[in-house]
Design goal:
heterodimer; A: 164 residues; alpha+beta; Chemotaxis protein chec; 7-stranded antiparallel beta sheet; 4 helices; 7 strands; 39% helix; B: 146 residues; alpha/beta; Rossmann fold; two-stranded antiparallel ribbon; 6 helices; disordered C terminus
Chain lengths: 164, 146
């Protein structure tokens, strides 16, 4: 997986989380995983298709999701509130949207699909991806996991974009 | 949340009426909170472009805040249809997908402005004042507390 593909997502996650939570955050852990992904809590998965293909998963433990959603909403939300799941999807949308804007301006064309929500209550689920970069952002509200599995689909677009 | 000097309608001094269009309930609630900090009122909400068109016809809000990526009909198409029928409509696109191509397409098809998500209240406040132009007036601090 190419770093030039990943960096916009890291920058966007940093910007969106820092602004929304109004506190600095840091990357606590970064690793490559080849095993199928198991959801940790409330997770939003967004797929990309086009010059770049793959998917990004945002995953938060239920308590962390409630804290983050409460921060974004400006009011206390219980773990069971449907808005918590909505908030995780919106958070994923904002991060991916911001990253996609950067990549699109670099010449990549692709489609962002609507987020699909997964929860650990549904039992362990996995994706078919074989290689993914897993980042753990350390925030004041708890760890936020971002799992990225992306690849170039169109080598011509890659060459044009990198050369641009 | 930070409070701003209320922006009122010049013609009658009433609160500016907003239609919020976003498929995310969470995003609509968030935008609603921001608007209320400007002294605005939520006239209505819609979760897709088609509903936005019918809600605009029914409510005739002063400003529409419109997301882009939505089911049924996307925001840019809905904005175009609203403006075609109501040239005076003020549609502000509010989206995380803020690449140049999208912004240009939105403006060419009738949107008055574009605000990138996550929305910074101070940015949206300035955009609202700009888009309202002479039809909007910022109430004085004394007036705001009255």
């Amino acid at each position: 997986m190419k770093m030039e593909l990943i960096q916009p997502f890291i920058n966007a996650a940093d910007a969106v989380l820092s602004q929304g939570l109004q506190s600095p955050m840091a990357i606590e852990n970064l690793s490559m995983e080849e095993e199928a992904y198991r959801f940790k809590g409330v997770a939003a998965m967004i797929e990309l298709s086009g010059d770049i293909e793959g998917r990004i998963i945002f995953d938060l433990a239920p308590k962390t999701a409630a804290r983050v959603a409460s921060h974004f909403a400006g009011t206390e939300l219980p773990e069971t509130d449907g808005l918590v799941r909505e908030a995780v999807c919106e958070l994923a949308n904002q991060v991916i949207g911001n990253a996609v804007a950067v990549l699109n301006d670099q010449g990549f064309k692709f489609r962002v699909h609507p987020p699909a929500l997964h929860t650990s209550e549904q039992g362990p689920k996995s994706t078919e991806d074989t290689e993914a970069l897993v980042l753990c952002f350390d925030t004041a509200d708890g760890p936020v996991f971002m799992n990225i599995a992306l690849r170039y689909h169109n080598p011509t677009a890659q060459a044009a974009a990198v050369g641009a | 949340m930070e409070q701003f000097a209320p922006v009122k309608r010049s013609k009658d001094g009433q609160a500016v009426q907003y239609l919020i269009v976003d498929d995310s309930v969470f995003a609509r609630k968030n935008l609603g909170r921001i608007i209320e900090s400007f002294g605005g009122q939520i006239a209505g909400e819609a979760g897709d472009g088609l509903t936005a068109i019918s809600e605009y016809d029914r409510l005739k809000p002063d400003i529409v805040l419109m997301d882009i990526t939505m089911p049924q009909m996307e925001g840019i198409e809905a904005a175009e249809k609203i403006v075609q029928k109501n040239p005076e409509a003020r549609v502000v696109m509010v989206s995380s997908v803020g690449y140049q191509e999208n912004i240009v397409a939105a403006l060419q098809r009738g949107a008055r402005h574009f605000v990138q998500k996550p929305v910074k209240p101070e940015v949206l406040y300035e955009v609202i004042k700009y888009v309202l132009g002479e039809d909007g007036a910022v109430a004085s601090a004394a007036g705001a507390g009255a």
